[in-house]
Amino acid sequence: MNIFRLLGDLSHLLAIMILLQKIFYSRSCAGISAKSQVLFAIVYTARYLDLVTVYVSLYNISMKVVFLLSSYATLYLIYLKFRATYDRNHDTFRIEFLLLPAIVLALLINHQFSALEVLWTFSIYLESVAILPQLFMVSKTGEAESITSHYLFALGSYRGLYILNWFYRYWTEGHYDLIAIVAGVVQTVLYCDFFYLYVTKVLKGKKLQLPA
Amino acid sequence: QVVEENHDEL
Lengths: 212, 10
Fold this sequence. Notes:
The structure holds 2 protein chains of 2 kinds. In chain A, 71% of the residues lie in helices and 2% in strands. Chain A is an all-alpha fold. Chain A has one domain (3-202). A two-stranded antiparallel ribbon of chain A has the order 1-2. Chain A is globular and about 45 Å long. The termini of chain A are far apart. Chain B contains 1 helix and no strands. Chain B has one helix spanning 2-5. Chain B is elongated, with a radius of gyration of 6 Å. The mean pLDDT of chain B is 78.
């Protein structure tokens, strides 16, 4: 554990908390892509199956449990509790175009051809593109609420900080994992356009609006 | 080696 990794995890946690409290207190999931949230629930489920096989640390277990529970809680809020506010007409990204390549790639490129390892690899690939339905939705409506922008910024920063963590681990331990690094870079690059808009607009108190 | 290390990160 190093500072980048810790900040990355905290940023991830912050993103989830922002999203949950936004939906909960506004009693609305308008502007949130349910499809991205479904993909995240699949990502955490596939990745954290090791909860029942390996003990790493109390920190590790707690974070995994929080990420899993919060992803299902988010789905519950969107699909059941506040389903009337779900903006399904703008959430039209076809997630099979992300799921199928992630499955095929995980079967082809992995560290070890075992069930848990292929699922871990699948979750890494899928996570790198899981935000696309959400970004697609923002581009389709041309705008995002500030709170949604804060959510996206925190979520995007998380993998960016993990990249610094991987640099640090390479220098200090000589450890590196190409699958995680390449997927992490792809994931972060997908947010770059958004990061730019966030810094130039949202931080200056303006609403995130895309040029028409 | 790499496979074990994967369980630590989130």
